[in-house]
Amino acid sequence: MRSIGFGLAAGAKGRAAARGKAAAALLLLAAAAGCAPAAPSPDTDAPASNSASSSAPDPSAASASATASDPGSSGTAAGAVPTPTPGLGEECAAVRCFSMMVAGDLLVHPQLWTQAGADAAASGKVPLDFTPLLEGKRAYLDSADLGICHMETPVAEADGPYTGYPLFNVPPQILTAARDVGYDACTTASNHTVDAGTAGLNRTLGVLDSLGLPHTGSYASEADAAKPFILQTPAAKVSVVEATYGLNGMTADFDWQVDLLDPAVMIAKAKAARAAGADVVVGAVHAGDEYASVPNAQQVEVAHALADSGEFDFIYGHHSHSVLPIENYNGTWIAYGLGNSVTELSPWYDVNNEGLILRAQFGQDDDGAWSVTDLAWAPSVIVRDPYRWCSVAADLPQGACATPEHQAAVRARTIGVVESMGAADAGAHEWLVSTDPVR
């Protein structure tokens, strides 16, 4: 149940109404983007495509739904009592709260669309069904008011042809599955965003629009690129500002098509979002050294600059294909890298097969200011035969989908890295979704 519209506070959480959950949706849509396979060599440069532009469908064509009730922002009238809005997830002491789940790269390789073909034959959702691959995420997305995916690559036409590394053009059905398990919006700026040229970029944004998934990071028009990206939750208006470190040596056809890392530009976007009504601004940084366990100098410099500006309430990142530390920097939480959300299995880099999902809970204080009131994370791993996303959190909400030895190794690596910059001492903790209160 979603609704998209330019200039409208629209939408609901894309879950079934029977779940009784208010939805998140787009207020002012800016517009939508997606890395290398697990191989010994990093991403390689490739020539830019000069494919003709294919404009994205009119977002107003998305199916409509009721706007989330009581969408009020922090701007409560003088003397008025804020409407209690507890949000989903941990118990929140503040009167108004909401939670946001973020994850790493949706990086689809040929092995995954082969699996989706086999799953489609079993489910009848031909030709490709990626929902079983992502199904384990549903419980986590159901325990967050807002779920943001990162689409790493362009998508092809529904019937192909598809291509993998180094120039990706993947089945669009992956986005259908992302919506169906509960994602509400996606970021789209990555080093692979222009792998299929302007046509692929616009096609990806068109698919997201047709599915009712708001998006930011890459754009179908200059006008879209200039609009603040704001999502409506029951408690607050939330903006996500995302950018990538580069495009694998390629160049977008227009300088406004893909947001590139520049702290000054990101800070200006955050200020514009606040001027347009955003209560909370989140930064998303696509950067890092592949398969690393520490953030590189660029990541730290950019994240700290965003935090120091006072315009960002939370910052997270992706790209390295590995889980990176979480830091509380002068009161601002920074999750440097969430690893892969989905990918093929690497025989060379165990970390490539692992990921992190993270839920940030935001609460509003008595003065109307919003801040992160709880930060929870859960480790994950991709398994095969069949390929599945698998949580290895201590409560094993899916049950055991890897061997005890494999689960223990993933947990040990993930916890060691996540907590290596003081996250546990600052209050970040493992997300045990099975213990979340039911609302």
Task: Provide a brief overview of the structure.
By secondary structure, the chain is α/β, with parallel strands linked by helices. It is 21% helix and 21% strand.
Describe it for me?
The chain has 439 residues and is of the alpha/beta class. It has a single domain (35-63, 84-435), classed as 4-Layer Sandwich (Purple Acid Phosphatase, chain A, domain 2), CATH 3.60.21.10. The chain has 10 helices and 16 strands. The chain has helices at residues 110-123, 131-134, 138-141, 173-181, 197-210, 222-226, 263-275, 297-308, 404-418, 423-426; strands at residues 25-28, 97-106, 146-151, 185-187, 215-216, 230-232, 237-244, 280-287, 314-319, 326-329, 332-335, 340-342, 354-364, 370-383, 388-391, 429-430. The strands form 2 sheets. Strands 2, 3, 4, 5, 12, 13, 14, 15 and 16 form a 9-stranded mixed β-sheet that branches. It has a 7-stranded mixed β-sheet with strand order 1-6-7-8-9-11-10, with helices on one face. A hairpin with a 5-residue loop joins strand 13 (354-364) and strand 14. Helix 7 (263-275) packs parallel to helix 8 (297-308). The longest helix is centred in the last third of the chain and has 15 residues, at 404-418. It is globular. The chain starts with 24 loop residues before the first strand and ends in a 9-residue tail after the last strand. The model is unreliable at 1-78 (pLDDT under 50). Pfam families: PGA_cap (PF09587). Residues 1-38 form the signal peptide.
